[in-house]
Known about the structure:
This protein is an alpha+beta fold. The protein has one helix and five strands; from the N terminus they run αβββββ. Helix content is 15%, strand content 46%. Strands 1-2-3-4-5 form a five-stranded antiparallel β-sheet, with no helix packed on it. The model has no long low-confidence stretch (mean pLDDT 84).
Amino acid sequence: MTYKEMKEVVELLDSLQGFENYAYFNEGIREVKRDDNLEIIEITFPCGYLKRTVANKYANRQTAWVLGYNENILGVFLVA
């Protein structure tokens, strides 16, 4: 991972209020997946993942990040 990529990941993780309360906060990053626009869509940790999704509420789209492993969801972070 380049310095630029690491900086982008750190900025993303810093924007997720409460993320520091999870064990993933201190884990290394295995992989960063991007979409066609080169935006981060998933971060893989040794024991789980953080995936970007969209939460719809009354036709208002809001970005959400799901933290979990396998089919287990540990947390959801809404991004304003």
